[in-house]
Inverse folding.
C-alpha cells in the first residue's frame, strides 16, 4: 500500500488568520472521506454527488445494524460505539413519546487536531449526509452543527443553503449552526447543548446524558464531525465493502492530524492497521524520542512502542494509549521534552472555563509546580506536583481537568532521564522551541517571547452588566487581572503591556459572558 500524492490544502478567505489555512492532506491507499479533494478545494453539492453518489434510503434498524457491523465509534475522543448511541436515543424518544434532535460536534479547540476542520471546509456535504440520515431514522426535528471558526461556519452555511436546509417553518427537519468560542473545552457535549438551548457555552456540571435530555430537552444524538462523515461513507458502501479495508473489528479508514516535529502539519486518511511509523515517515518524521498520541488529553509512548504499534484501537490500548481525536505528535530528540510539555500544561491551564476549583485553581497550580520541578525544585517539588495532579482527578465539571492531569503525568513518566536531570538542578541541556502547536502562538508553538514591559495605548474594560464572575480572564491574564473577594475581575483601567496584546485579545474572545473588550486608553 503506497501513499497517494499530497492533496492541496484549502485556501483561506481574505483577512483570515494563519489558523484558518488548512493543512496539507494525504491519503494512504484509496481515499474515502478525502475522495475528490484532488478535484476541488471544497466539494459543493454537485461535485459531492458526482464523487460519492446519492445516499440510500435506510430504516432505523438497518442503520443501527450498519453502524455495528462497521465498528463505528465516536471519532472525537471518547470512542463510544455509535450504534449504541442510536439505540439509546431512539428508545428514549419512544419511552417519552417525543421527537429527537441531532448535534454534530464540529468544534476543534485543540490546535494539534485539524482533521474535523478539514472535513467541514472541504467535504461539508459528507458530514450533513450522515447527520440527515441519522435525523431521518430517529424522527428528529432539529439538526444542530456547532463550529468555532468563521471559515468553518461559512462552509457549513453554504452547504445547508445548497441543500435547502434551514429554520423555515413547515419543514420536518430544521437545521441551524451554533457558534462556540474558540477554546479547548468548546467541544464538551454539555457545553454545546447549553449553547444550543440559549445558555452559556459552558459545561453546566449536570451529569445528564444527551440521549435522555439534550437540545430543547429532547433525546439527542451527539457525535463528532468525522463520525457522521464515516456513517455517510458506510451507508453508500454497505458494511461488506466498508470492511474491505482496515483491520477486523475496526474496519475502514481513520483521519489523523500529524503535528509536532514535522516539516508541516498534515491531515492523513489511512486504513486502520497501518503502522504508526509508516504514517510518521510519510509526513517527513520519525518516532523521535517519543510520540504524543491522542493530543493534549492523550499520552506519550516511547520510540520502541511507537515503532511497533499500528493505527488501531486494540494495538494502542495494549500500551495504554488511545487515538482520541486522532492526533499524533512526534518529538525530535534534540528538544527538551519536559520543556515542550510545560508549554502545553500552561496553555491547558489557561483554557479552563473557570467555573470549578480543579480547573480554576488546580490546573494553574500544576503548571506552576511543573515549572518549579524543571527549574531544579528537587524531590519535594516533584512530589508536590504529583499530589496536585491527583488532586484534580474526577472532580471537574467536565473532563478537562482529568485530561490535563493525564497529559502531565504521562510527560513526567515517559521522560524519566530528563526528569531526573531537571530535579537534580542541572537540566537536560536541550532547548525548548515550542514545536507542539498552541492557539495564539507565534511560530510552531508556545506563546511567543515577550517584547519588554512597555505599555500599549490600549486597556482592558469590563462590561459590568454582562460579567458573571467566571474568572476566566484572570487565568488567561494573571499579569494584569486579579479577582476580588467576590470572584469578579479587578482591572482598574490598567493599560495592557505590548507583549500581552495578543493574550488580551484571546481573553476577550473567550469570555463566556462576552463582558470584556479592549479600548483605546487615550480616548476620553
Amino acid at each position: 500500500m503506497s501513499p497517494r500524492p499530497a492533496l492541496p490544502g484549502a485556501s483561506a478567505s481574505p483577512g483570515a488568520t494563519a489558523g484558518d489555512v488548512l493543512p496539507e492532506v494525504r491519503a494512504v491507499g484509496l481515499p474515502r472521506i478525502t475522495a475528490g479533494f484532488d478535484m476541488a478545494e471544497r466539494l459543493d453539492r454537485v461535485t459531492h454527488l458526482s464523487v460519492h453518489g446519492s445516499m440510500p434510503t435506510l430504516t432505523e434498524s438497518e442503520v443501527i445494524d450498519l453502524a455495528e457491523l462497521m465498528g463505528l465509534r465516536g471519532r472525537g475522543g471518547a470512542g463510544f460505539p455509535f450504534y449504541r448511541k442510536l439505540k439509546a436515543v431512539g428508545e428514549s424518544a419512544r419511552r417519552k413519546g417525543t421527537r429527537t434532535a441531532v448535534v454534530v460536534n464540529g468544534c476543534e479547540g485543540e490546535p494539534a487536531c485539524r482533521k474535523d476542520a478539514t472535513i467541514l471546509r472541504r467535504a461539508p456535504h459528507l458530514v450533513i449526509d450522515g447527520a440527515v440520515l441519522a435525523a431521518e431514522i430517529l424522527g428528529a426535528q432539529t439538526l444542530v452543527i456547532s463550529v468555532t471558526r468563521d471559515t468553518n461556519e461559512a462552509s457549513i452555511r453554504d452547504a445547508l443553503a445548497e441543500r435547502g436546509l434551514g429554520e423555515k417553518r413547515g419543514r420536518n427537519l430544521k437545521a441551524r449552526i451554533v457558534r462556540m468560542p474558540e477554546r479547548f473545552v468548546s467541544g464538551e457535549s454539555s457545553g454545546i447543548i447549553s449553547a444550543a438551548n440559549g445558555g452559556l457555552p459552558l459545561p453546566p456540571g449536570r451529569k445528564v446524558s444527551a440521549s435522555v435530555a439534550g437540545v430543547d430537552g429532547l433525546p439527542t444524538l451527539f457525535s463528532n464531525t468525522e463520525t457522521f462523515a464515516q456513517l455517510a461513507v458506510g451507508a453508500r458502501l454497505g458494511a461488506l465493502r466498508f470492511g474491505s479495508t482496515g483491520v477486523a473489528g475496526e474496519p475502514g479508514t481513520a483521519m489523523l492530524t500529524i503535528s509536532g516535529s514535522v516539516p508541516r502539519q498534515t491531515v492523513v486518511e489511512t486504513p486502520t492497521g497501518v503502522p504508526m511509523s509508516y504514517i510518521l515517515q510519510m509526513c517527513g518524521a520519525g518516532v523521535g524520542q517519543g510520540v504524543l498520541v491522542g493530543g493534549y488529553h492523550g499520552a506519550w509512548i516511547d520510540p520502541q512502542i511507537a515503532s511497533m504499534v499500528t493505527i488501531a484501537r486494540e494495538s494502542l490500548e495494549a500500551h495504554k494509549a488511545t487515538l482520541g481525536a486522532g492526533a499524533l505528535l512526534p518529538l525530535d530528540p534534540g528538544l527538551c521534552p519536559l520543556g515542550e510539555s510545560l508549554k502545553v500544561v500552561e496553555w491547558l491551564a489557561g483554557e479552563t472555563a473557570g467555573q470549578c476549583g480543579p480547573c480554576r485553581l488546580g490546573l494553574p497550580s500544576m503548571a506552576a509546580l511543573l515549572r518549579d520541578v524543571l527549574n531544579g525544585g528537587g524531590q519535594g517539588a516533584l512530589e508536590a506536583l504529583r499530589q496536585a495532579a491527583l488532586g484534580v482527578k474526577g472532580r471537574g465539571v467536565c473532563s478537562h481537568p482529568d485530561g490535563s492531569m493525564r497529559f502531565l503525568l504521562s510527560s513526567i513518566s515517559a521522560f524519566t532521564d530528563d526528569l531526573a536531570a531537571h530535579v537534580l538542578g542541572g537540566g537536560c541541556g536541550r532547548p525548548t522551541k515550542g514545536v507542539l502547536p498552541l492557539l495564539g502562538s507565534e511560530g510552531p508553538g508556545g506563546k511567543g517571547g515577550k517584547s519588554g514591559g512597555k505599555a500599549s495605548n490600549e486597556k482592558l474594560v469590563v462590561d459590568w452588566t454582562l460579567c458573571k464572575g467566571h474568572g476566566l480572564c484572570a487565568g488567561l491574564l494573571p499579569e494584569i487581572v486579579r479577582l476580588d473577594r467576590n470572584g469578579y475581575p479587578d482591572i482598574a483601567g490598567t493599560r495592557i503591556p505590548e507583549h500581552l496584546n495578543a493574550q488580551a485579545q484571546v481573553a476577550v474572545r473567550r469570555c463566556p459572558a462576552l463582558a470584556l473588550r479592549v479600548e483605546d486608553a487615550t480616548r476620553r
Remarks:
- The CA atoms of residues 182 and 515 lie 16 Å apart.
- The longest strand covers residues 140-147.
